[in-house]
Amino acid sequence: MKEPVAVELFSAGYCNMACKYCYIPKNKELKKVNEKIIEKMKNGKFVENMKEYYGDNLEIISLWGTEPTINLDIFAEYMLDDIIEEFPKFNKISFSSNMLDYTDDIIKLAEKLEQNNRDITLNVQFSDDGLNFTDKNRYQGASNKVRDNIKYLLTSLDELDLESLKFSSHFKATTSIDNMEEMLEDNSISDWFKYFEDIYFTWFDDKISNKDRIKFSSRATPTLVCPGEYTMRDAKVWTEFTAKLFEISKNNDFKYIKGSLNNYTGRLSKLVKYYGELGNKPWMFTCSAGDSQMGLNTDGTFGMCHRMFYTVEDEYLKECNESGVVDYEQELFMEKDFTSKVSNRNRDRIRLETTQRLYHDFWAIKISNLDALIYEMIDAGQLKEVYLEDNVRRLFTLLLSTGLTCQADRLAITGSQFVSSADMVRLWGNGAFENTFKDYMYWRW
């Protein structure tokens, strides 16, 4: 059995924002969860849990939950030194931030990492939805604040004498169907990409001197809201959007961005390129959750990823139910079959890791379930009949089982990590997959 080398740490229990597409319901219990997290950071329990589970194998720590920078100063003060001492292979910290606050704490973390004289990478994902969508998805003025904070962060890091620390960063743009429809209506998709290019050109290209140590991507790609409930109307918009991405990429007039503009074409390319490894190394194509990484909860148990964090927060779930949020995904995880007590090789851990290996390593049950669902959806007029063709359907089902899947989503929506959501089949099976395949064939990554 493979040994996990990465941990997703529940590092923040509440957020300074309430984005429209966020799947975590907000209530008063979130700050109580955060207090619990702070306590475990300060008393050393998180490090103790990681040491017991990973031994000396831990290499990567990802900070997750809500907005990780909220407790970043506490992580740096109470946990970082112990992590460096306890885990000799530790070499990377990563997290995603909405970049609306706490920028100084990111800089302080970078300074402390540099002082430890170990080769470590700090990777920060900037959440910016592009154009005016950050304002629409968060609040008016958020877009300018995000851009200003990114500039401040990068220029401040450039003033540091970085020798052992490497800083890498990129954009994560979450694009709702409504956002896509708006871009289609006002013909602003090219402007959306140029928005990110402009940030790179204005604040990085010829402004940052230490490009050996500070990396910043010049591009972003539209990423679907996940989890999401997708209708036939959504499928039509997504199909039109992917077709437009392909058209714009062929008539490229960008300075930095080359090749495909479709984020999902790369996932298809990986599947085709390494198709021969599907039987030997199936985990190459699925999410790392429950494979090379696990998520550490506040009660000391581990789950497949950060989507398990709130499954052990009973008071929070109770508040969700009492406020009428009865469809929240954690309800499907309440039996805790997908979390494990911390121990080197106890029964719960073996059960958890075996369950995860079944998901990553065995394809037949996932493919057969998808085949049955596809036939039924074609009969119901929810899917194009092209998927009756064996070769087309097989590539489609393989992609849906790898680059377009999340096992936590499957659990939340269908109750089984082996059964695909009809929403995703509907979204991709009405032209978007064909557009993505054309995109791949044109660019041949």
Brief description of this entry?
This protein is α/β, with parallel strands linked by helices and 445 residues long. The protein has a domain at 229-286 and 364-445.
Describe this structure in words.
By secondary structure, the chain is an alpha/beta fold. It has a domain at 229-286 and 364-445. Helices cover 47% and strands 11% of the residues. It contains 18 helices and ten strands. It has helices at 29-43, 45-54, 72-78, 80-86, 103-115, 133-137, 142-158, 177-185, 189-205, 232-250, 263-273, 314-322, 347-361, 364-379, 390-400, 407-414, 422-428, 432-443, and strands at residues 6-10, 60-64, 92-97, 120-127, 165-175, 214-216, 222-224, 293-296, 302-303, 339-340. Strands 1, 2, 3, 4, 5, 6, 7, 8, 9 and 10 form a ten-stranded mixed sheet that branches. It is globular, with a radius of gyration of 22 Å.
Q: What secondary-structure arrangement, pairings included, does this model have?
A:
Elements: E1 6-10, H1 29-43, H2 45-54, E2 60-64, H3 72-78, H4 80-86, E3 92-97, H5 103-115, E4 120-127, H6 133-137, H7 142-158, E5 165-175, H8 177-185, H9 189-205, E6 214-216, E7 222-224, H10 232-250, H11 263-273, E8 293-296, E9 302-303, H12 314-322, E10 339-340, H13 347-361, H14 364-379, H15 390-400, H16 407-414, H17 422-428, H18 432-443
Helix pairs in contact: 5-7, 8-10, 10-18, 11-18, 14-15
